[in-house]
Amino acid sequence: MKLHEKIINYISEDFRMTIEGIKRMPNNSKNWLSAIYMYITKLRTKIENAPLQKVFNERIQFPILDKICSLISIYIANKLKLA
After folding, report:
1. What pLDDT is stored for residue 82 in this prediction?
2. How many angstroms from the chain centroid is the CA of residue 49?
3. Residue 78 neighbours by CB under 8 Å, 6+ apart
4. Which listed residue, of 15, 32, 37, 40, carries a Cα 20 to 30 Å from 69's Cα?
């Protein structure tokens, strides 16, 4: 298994455990943790698709507009009780 695949598998396993913990949280905490989880999931996808050299040598990030849109969508979902 390549190093890049090992890193992604390690992160994915961490995510599986994290989502189980989020489900057990009180609703007010769960909502914001879910928002953070969604953001980090998108970041993980960018890491998966990036070349290994870029992962180690560059900062992988999202534009601020993507971050704001994610938070707004979670806020709306919470207000509508969808999350």
Report:
1. 59
2. 14
3. 31
4. 15
Instruction: Answer with the residue of higher pLDDT: 82 or 57.
Output: 57
Q: Return the closest-CA partner of residue 39 out of 62, 10, 9.
A: 62
For the full predicted model, state whether its pTM sits above 0.70.
no
**Rounded distance between C-alpha atoms, residue 58 and residue 82, angstroms:** 36
Type of residue found at 63: P
* Continuous H helices in 2-63: 3-23, 27-49, 52-57
pLDDT digits (tens, 9 = 90+) for 11-61: 888 878 877 777 787 777 777 777 777 777 888 888 888 888 887 888 888
Least Cα distance to 70 among 25, 44, 34, 45 occurs for 34
Which residue ranges make up each domain of the chain?
A: 3-79
